[in-house]
Specification:
Elements: H1 4-7, H2 13-24, E1 33-37, H3 44-55, E2 61-65, H4 74-85, H5 98-106, H6 114-117, H7 122-144, H8 152-155, H9 167-178, H10 189-200, H11 210-223, H12 226-249, E3 257-262, H13 267-286, E4 294-300, H14 327-333, E5 344-348, H15 354-365, H16 378-385, H17 389-402, H18 410-417, E6 423-426, E7 429-432, H19 433-441, H20 447-456, H21 462-468, H22 474-481, H23 497-507, H24 511-527, H25 531-540, H26 544-555, H27 560-571, H28 583-589, H29 602-616, H30 628-641, H31 647-657
Parallel strand pairs: 1-4, 1-5, 2-3, 3-4
Antiparallel strand pairs: 6-7
Helix pairs in contact: 2-3, 3-9, 4-12, 5-10, 5-12, 10-11, 12-13, 15-16, 19-23, 20-23, 24-25, 25-26, 25-27, 26-27, 26-29, 27-29, 29-30, 30-31
């Protein structure tokens, strides 16, 4: 695996500079909780790995993955994070977490408090509590080396590396786990006394006595109701943040500590974020204290319920892009400091552009002579996947594993035509590329719902698809909350191009359902008087002659530039053409049912242009865009057949004749 800095942050370099800024700020400065948002496969886990690799060797950091099958309670997550942050680094002293350790210890095992409850002197009761805590501590240190290390047994699954982690990131992470504190077994009387005083003064704890405060924590854990257990978690988070403040106040200590929180959309991840934001806000805004020195980068591939409806209308934030992320940008757009929303910094991860896909292919394939020719497939891979990082990687893996024809030509075109059905091996499991990719993107959605979604994907506008095909708003809302609609800058709520292409590939295996969906959508747009959208679905239903006739009628009825725009929209329709043969064979099979034209006229030229661009617009049908010259010739002929307003047609011919691949799929 290549360096995470070379892959994981390609197109996301602003995240590195943002984290670097945060780590260099004074300890008491306000810092955001940066959220990396996007669908599964958008590269958030890769970004975590790259940040770990970039900053881990010189800065204290901790990583936890909330997306595992393990139920990671907030107290366990705090212990795992603190244990990693205790790593000794050459430049800094060792961080310590005595308050958190005491809070965890006091609420861990059930304390015997009968002495305090049955009339013994308070001094005797306090000494009894202290002895029990000391005993618990010594027992854990004897078994694990230090108290926090004991939590590895209950949280080990959450310590797995992010997906796509490089060997360097692996080494850094293992070092963080290996070089944590190892305290000798000894009593804690002095340290416990100091820590107990802090708990006795905490505003969430009723008792002002330091030992009674610890007993109260214990009772909340073992006998408390839901509200009291939440209060315990809040106290533990407050202790964690106070430990961090005290660490940074010492000499030769870092200004900030880096937390990497993966998959925080999972229930325990959401709970952790809720508690962290509330603790920071309570300590900083409510009580007027200094901000904690945490630099937090979290990821989520779902909209978080605490932000309100997934439309975003009730949330004061507008999603920001990762390329220009910075503290100044956060300060400019953050809401007022009165509410907890002020701490978020939501960054919507974008897809890779053409150059970024090219660099990724060159980094992974360029060093292998037998694989290097595949780098010429960069435009095809980008068109097919829309630049979704996981999809790009999956196609690279298929090419590596399958022995596809390396040289550009008809054989390679025919092989790529069936790419979604090619086998992809992941570990010991092998399945088709389409099944593997859909299983990853739509995890948790059952086969019946997936089949329904495939029908709705027939509509470019998913909201129209769910409405017209009678599947309601729930499916649309689920796709939106999973960030599976096209990213920022799009006006039509369409599915991500990679997901939609895969769903339509599967829908094509159900020809009756395919035709029924597109005919119903065409009728819907006809009833609304929207001919371009109607033609789009007529063409998808293979009504080529009808579409060509309508485009011929509009050829002289609208300005040339408008006609070109409409032509492009219509001929970008999906198809269920045979999965055999290259672009020329597919084109030959789409000849007009009316037979060969007797003369070159606008009708015959438009007919040929419709089928040529329809095939060309599907990267699986024309991987090498070999039909570009035919489309260019068609526009040249149209410019000669039209009496006026011919410059746009001539320019369009030049565009296809000297085709330059766009940086983003939305530019075609």
């Amino acid at each position: 695996m290549e360096s995470g800095s070379g892959l994981g942050l390609r197109g996301r370099s602003g995240i590195v500079s943002l984290v670097d800024e945060c780590l260099k700020q004074p300890p008491t400065a306000d810092r955001p909780i940066t959220m990396l948002l996007g669908p599964r496969g958008s590269g958030a886990s890769e970004a975590h790995s790259a940040l770990m690799e970039h900053f881990g060797p010189d800065h204290p950091f901790a990583y936890v993955n909330f997306g595992t099958a393990q139920s990671l309670l907030p107290r366990y997550a705090l212990a795992l994070l603190a244990r990693q942050l205790e790593r000794k680094l050459p430049r800094y002293g060792r961080s310590r977490f005595p308050l958190l350790s005491l809070g965890l210890l006091a609420s861990d095992e059930l304390l015997n408090i009968r002495g305090m409850a049955q009339g013994h002197s308070m001094a005797q009761g306090r000494r009894a509590v202290q002895r029990q805590l000391d005993h618990f501590q010594q027992a854990n240190e004897a078994r694990h080396g230090d108290y926090l290390a004991a939590f590895f047994e209950v949280g080990v699954e959450a310590l797995g590396l992010p997906e796509g982690a490089s060997s360097l990131a692996l080494a850094v992470f293992q070092d963080a786990l290996r070089r944590g504190r190892r305290l000798p077994v000894r009593g804690l009387a002095g340290r416990l006394t100091t820590g107990a005083q802090w708990f006795g003064a905490h505003p969430l704890i009723r008792s002002g006595d330091r030992w009674e405060a610890l007993v109260e924590l214990n009772m909340w854990r073992h006998d408390g109701d839901e509200q009291q257990q939440e209060r315990l978690d809040r106290v533990l988070f407050s202790a964690f943040l106070e430990d961090l403040r005290r660490n940074t106040a010492r000499n030769f200590m870092p200004r900030s500590h880096l937390l990497l929180l993966d998959n925080t959309h999972a229930p325990y991840g959401r709970r952790f974020l809720d508690l962290l934001v509330r603790a920071r806000h309570d300590d900083t805004v409510v009580t007027g204290g200094a901000c904690d020195p945490l630099t937090v980068v979290a990821s989520a591939n779902r909209w978080l319920p605490r932000w309100g409806p997934a439309t975003g209308d009730a949330w004061p934030w507008q999603l920001r892009g990762p390329d220009r992320a910075s503290l100044s940008d956060w300060h400019t757009y953050r809401p007022t400091r009165d509410g907890e929303d002020t701490w978020w910094y939501p960054l919507r991860l974008r897809d890779l552009n053409l150059d970024e896909v090219r660099i990724r292919l060159e980094l992974q394939l360029g060093g292998h002579p037998e694989l290097a020719p595949y780098t010429r497939l960069t435009p095809f891979v980008h068109r097919l996947t829309g630049g979704l990082p996981r999809a790009v990687q999956q196609i690279l893996d298929v090419l590596r594993q399958s022995g596809a024809p390396a040289e550009s030509g008809p054989d390679q075109d025919r092989w790529l035509r069936k790419l979604p059905d090619r086998q992809l091996r992941t570990g010991e499991v092998s399945s088709t590329l389409a099944e593997t990719a859909l299983g990853h993107l739509l995890r948790g959605i059952d086969p019946v719902e997936r089949a329904v979604l495939a029908e709705c994907a027939a509509a470019r506008d998913l909201s129209v698809g769910t409405q017209v095909l009678g599947h309601g708003e729930e499916l649309f809302g689920e796709m939106r909350s999973r960030w599976l609609l096209a990213g920022p800058g799009t006006f039509v709520p369409t599915l991500h191009p990679w997901l939609r292409r895969l769903l339509l590939w599967q829908l094509a295996r159900r020809p009756d359902d395919w035709d029924r969906a597109h005919e119903r959508l065409a009728e819907h747009y006809r009833s609304q008087g929207r001919p371009v959208q109607e033609m789009y679905h007529r063409l998808a239903a293979h009504r080529v002659d009808d579409v060509a006739d309508e485009l011929l009628r509009r050829f002289t009825a609208v300005p040339a530039a408008q006609w070109i725009s409409e032509f492009d929209a219509v001929t970008s329709a999906p198809n269920r053409l045979p999965d055999e043969g290259g672009p020329l064979e597919l084109l030959a099979a789409l000849g007009s049912r009316r037979g060969a034209a007797l003369a070159v006229d606008a009708a015959s030229v438009i007919q040929g242009l419709v089928v040529a661009r329809w095939v060309w617009s599907d990267p699986l049908a024309d991987p090498g865009m070999r039909l570009s010259h035919l489309i260019a010739e068609g526009f040249t002929q149209l410019s000669q057949l039209r009496r006026n307003d011919i410059v746009p047609l001539f320019n369009e011919a030049e565009r296809y004749r000297h085709w330059r691949h766009p940086q983003t799929t939305g530019e075609v």
